[in-house]
Amino acid sequence: MEAYKNWVRQNKDYVHSLESLANGLTWLLPERFSASEIGPEAAETLVEVVAQQLYGDDKKWNFILITEASKALLRLALFRDSGYKMLLHGGETPNIDDPPNPQNNPGDLAKPGGDLRPAYLNNQYVQNPWNREGKALAALNRFGENARMVYDPTWLRRTQQPGVITSTPTVVIERPTVSSILSEKGLCGGLFLMGETLFILRPLIYVWFIRKYGIRSWKPWLISLAVDLVSSSVSSLATKSKEGTNEQKETNLSVAEKDELRRRKVLWALYIMRDPFFCTYTRRRLESNQKVLEPIPVVGLLSEKLVDLIFGAQTRYTYMSGS
């Protein structure tokens, strides 16, 4: 400790600069943003701030409920349109299957009477028409077909047998439905659909019970935690269950989907930042630790500003919702 104090005395200018930087960080507090002319960048935070200023702390939950309901409906629509594939980052990232190694399946590179493109290209880009690479490959494929029709000799077409009609095979993609998933994957498919639906509806359920019982009630906190646990449990069962004789009943996850499941579990840490757990346990622990560090130069000031940032962010539902 004496060596640290000596270093502080010898570097007063540097310490003063750090303290000024720490004071400047307080402008990042949500309270500062709410009074700023720029306002929050996120639309959800803007809705929350405006609703709180105009209608108060209690009635702002009506607007947050409408926001979460809109998000839930949109994500359910995305879940259906994607063929009931796991939503990555709330649907912001397209869920693209991992391309298999073509060296392991050389027979997939070219099949008689089929598409000459590698199978992994078909799986990746045909199923995701919004992908730029998929659009480029589709355009190249159409260009090759048109060129073949233009340069096909006329005499060769005349020598073909009459009545024989040549046409380019068309790739028809059938989007999975709930019934097809249940029939093909059985219990695993049903558990997967249940887990994803619960995860999508969890924020809406949480806000609904906050609106009914209040933010300081344990009921919304416990119900939301229970929904998260059930969602994660049934999703794990869906990916690990091997019931049935058909191997297709087991749901295989891609690398991106495994990362998504890990990301969802990391979001559980936000429960210690939500009331009433925060005001009962987390806040007291942060304040006690801050008092211990307060006498230490620089460190005490930085810890104080960090605690202020945490307290400010905790007051906004948007920052702690995990939705």
UniProtKB/TrEMBL annotation:
<protein>
    <recommendedName>
        <fullName>Peroxisomal membrane protein PEX16</fullName>
    </recommendedName>
</protein>
<comment type="similarity">
    <text>Belongs to the peroxin-16 family.</text>
</comment>
<keyword id="KW-0962">Peroxisome biogenesis</keyword>
<dbReference type="GO" id="GO:0005778">
    <property type="term" value="C:peroxisomal membrane"/>
</dbReference>
<keyword id="KW-0576">Peroxisome</keyword>
<dbReference type="InterPro" id="IPR013919">
    <property type="entry name" value="Pex16"/>
</dbReference>
<feature type="region of interest" description="Disordered">
    <location>
        <begin position="90"/>
        <end position="113"/>
    </location>
</feature>
<dbReference type="GO" id="GO:0007031">
    <property type="term" value="P:peroxisome organization"/>
</dbReference>
<dbReference type="Pfam" id="PF08610">
    <property type="entry name" value="Pex16"/>
</dbReference>
